[in-house]
Design a protein that fits this description.
Layout: H1 6-20, E1 29-34, H2 37-42, H3 44-58, E2 63-68, E3 80-84, E4 90-92, H4 97-108, E5 118-121
Helix pairs in contact: 3-4
Length: about 130
């Protein structure tokens, strides 16, 4: 297989983004709960339970919840990444039941990033 050029990589990135980004009329928020071994040991199941409880109470069917493995920041688990339509993703760390409930109410439902729990905002990319 031939090596890809930067332009070809950018085109692939855009194609992937088009297929996976949040769309109008569907989900307006995607929450990824990081549930690698380190996350599970730190309490990510409890974070998932609290998040699903808030979604159910609010009847928030527009919120998509997914899981992933380790994000490489084991000492900062439990952790979630919140992606809102047309906004940069936000990675929240050192979560508790109370913190994820506040993130749900203020960021996911209210549109305001909870800065005190956020580690970083934006995508990791090399170009």
């Amino acid at each position: 297989m031939a090596k890809l050029t930067i332009d070809e990589l950018k085109k692939l990135k855009e194609q992937y983004k088009d297929k996976t980004h949040l769309r109008e009329g569907g989900s307006t928020a995607k929450v990824t709960v990081h549930m690698g071994t380190c996350g599970l040991a730190a309490g990510s199941r409890e974070i998932m339970d609290a998040l699903l409880d808030e979604i159910q109470k609010a009847n928030a069917s527009e919120v998509m919840v997914t899981t992933s493995g380790c994000a490489g920041l084991c000492s900062r688990e439990p952790m979630v990444t919140v992606e809102m339509l047309d906004e940069s993703p936000v990675k929240y760390v050192d979560l508790t039941d109370e913190k994820i409930r506040k993130i749900f109410k203020e960021h996911i439902r209210g549109g305001k990033v909870v800065e005190e729990y956020a580690l970083v905002r934006g995508c990791e990319t090399s170009y």
